[in-house]
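Notes from hallway chat w/ T.B., transcribed later so I don't forget. T.B. wanted the structure written out for a chain they're using in a teaching module, and asked if we could keep both sequence and structure tokens in one place. Agreed to drop them here.
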Amino acid sequence: MKLTLRVWRQKNADAEGAMSTYEVDGISPDMSFLEMLDTLNEELILKGEEPVAFDHDCREGICGACSLVINGDAHGPERTTTCQLHMRSFEDGDTIDVEPWRAAAFPVVKDLVVDRSAFDRIIQAGGYITAPTGAAPEAHATPVPKPDADFAFEHAECIGCGACVAACPNGAAMLFTSAKINHLNVLPQGAPERETRVLDMVAQMDEEGFGGCTLAGECATACPKGIPLFSITSMNKEWLRATRKVSKR
């Protein structure tokens, strides 16, 4: 396959960025998208040019670090992570635009790499369960109803890639935040911090500068792990419940 790549190049967060055009040839349809970028970078290095910076880690669709906007779609034309997207999804001779996530809360570090530490700070605000140290509890010591377990597992699949933010016309982080809140709040272990968790995490999300949610639904469509849109509704119910409970104290 021979392809024309239009790639966003930006030296650092303060520099002006622009699209640069590259031609790559000999691309196998069985290559992953990241392997194709590796091929491009090998050619650039041989020419003495600066390789394209892009983020990646596991390359197994687990960590979400490989996040890119490809032809205007978060993670590209398939509902998967960029590292699991293969070049057979494109045609010989295609022109492919490759850009970083576009969101005020995700500033560009270099080229296709963005700073997603805003997600880390949302987690630090309450996305955990405080538990005493010591030996692990006996298995099945705390029964969890199957509907609750299924609900928790469904939301725990979120890998924090940020596709929901990149796809949202408002740059909102509601789907990510709701997934992290819902998968803990429904479990007995998460009950003691149920109110503080949702209030603190939503407050931190707002502080990070993410946009407001208008339920456009693009977040759920782009999510490679299929976090459902009703997750946001569930979080809103949790937030209202917590607000009312706190106001009565």
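Follow-up for T.B.: The radius of gyration is 20 Å. Might be a good example for the class.
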